[in-house]
Specification:
A hairpin with a 6-residue loop joins strand 3 and strand 4. The two termini are 29 Å apart. This protein has six helices and four strands, in the order ααααββααββ. The strands form two sheets. A two-stranded antiparallel sheet has the order 1-2. The longest helix has 15 residues, at 90-104. The radius of gyration is 19 Å and the shape is globular. It has a domain at 1-88: Arc Repressor Mutant, subunit A. It is of the alpha+beta class. 37% of the residues lie in helices and 12% in strands.
């Protein structure tokens, strides 16, 4: 299978990877969640070419993750903002950030500390069950194919079953 065909698979990870599976795209999204909005600011922070940045921003627009909003008229310049679909990526970016903090922080510690605005405490968000509130991990969950996707092989014997 070719990389440009991955978005056609019957797999949510593959379909999502077709949009998000590029290192620049994840870094752009991380910056958006930190408040970066303007092309020039992305370029300065990430030090990538204008062509690459424009391509990734256009991809995120095409997939309704970001939208452009003009902030200047002459010449017209845009800010990039998250759509509802883009805001739904917050737990994804946060989980990647947590993983990087745990395994790749240097001796000075983690570069960014996140604080909960409501209570003022530093946080490390985690995945929890919306019904019982307990933390969820690969050992206390199962995965099964739904009826229309019953042809997906071995899903119940996959890595979630240790």
């Amino acid at each position: 299978m070719k990389w440009d065909e991955i978005g056609q698979m019957q797999c949510s990870v593959a379909r999502s990877s077709a949009v998000l599976g590029d290192r620049w795209t994840l870094l752009i999204l991380s910056d958006v969640f930190l408040g970066v909005r303007r092309f020039e600011d992305f370029q300065k922070r990430l030090n990538l070419s204008r062509t690459t940045l424009a391509s990734r921003l256009q991809l995120l627009e095409r997939h309704d993750v970001l939208f452009r909003e003009p902030y200047q008229n002459n010449p017209v310049r845009y800010e990039y903002r998250l759509t509802a679909k883009g805001r739904d990526l917050f737990p994804v970016i946060t989980t990647i950030l947590n993983w990087g903090d745990k395994y790749y922080a240097d001796v000075a510690g983690v570069p960014i500390v996140r604080t909960h605005k409501t209570c003022g405490h530093d946080i490390q968000p985690q995945l929890v069950c919306p019904d019982c509130g307990e933390p969820v991990n690969e050992r206390n969950m199962t995965a099964r194919a739904r009826a229309p996707f019953a042809n997906i092989p071995d899903v119940e014997r996959g890595p979630f079953q240790r």
